[in-house]
# Entry
Amino acid sequence: MRIVYLERLSEFAKRHADARKSLATWQDVTEKATWKNKQDVLDDFPKAKMLKYNRARFEIKHNTYRLIVFISYDSETVVVRFIGTHNEYDKIDPETI
# Structure
């Protein structure tokens, strides 16, 4: 999969050093993946939550942070829509961000 807006993750990792390892693992697994449907995502990330409108929520650093992405299965693209703390996550609508 190709990740769009990867710089958002890099910027977040600079501010939250404790998330670096988890983000690097997520990036590595995602870039090597060829997801064709929601189940493929869950096979790689069993704790992910599949949301409406081809979005997925991932737990980063044992659910300290949350990552929301939009997945285009046809174009094999993952678009980073949000990365933040639980407090920040509570202020957004994960299905429309």
User: Anything to note?
Assistant: The first helix runs from residue 6 to 15. The radius of gyration is 12 Å.
